[in-house]
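JOB MANIFEST
job_type = single_chain_structure
chain_count = 1
residues = 78
[input]
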Amino acid sequence: MQWLVVSVDRKILSSSAGLLNTILAIAGPLMTTLFTTIAGTINVNYALYGVLGLNAIVFTVTLIVMIKVNKTKQAEIA
């Protein structure tokens, strides 16, 4: 949650955290339904590849956000 505190204005921080929590609460059951449907109808390997691909996307986005936040902090220090 540290990146959210740094990247969002303090005035809208609570609503941003609430929105993020709502999105994650909705996405959880939807992703579970999607991957179990893929595993049941097509093949469990495709569902596992989908989970792996989704994890790679999330990891990449996390790295990009982390790098941008670090660059912003370094620019403020200098």
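[summary]
The chain has three helices and no strands.
The two ends are 25 Å apart (CA to CA).
exit_status = 0
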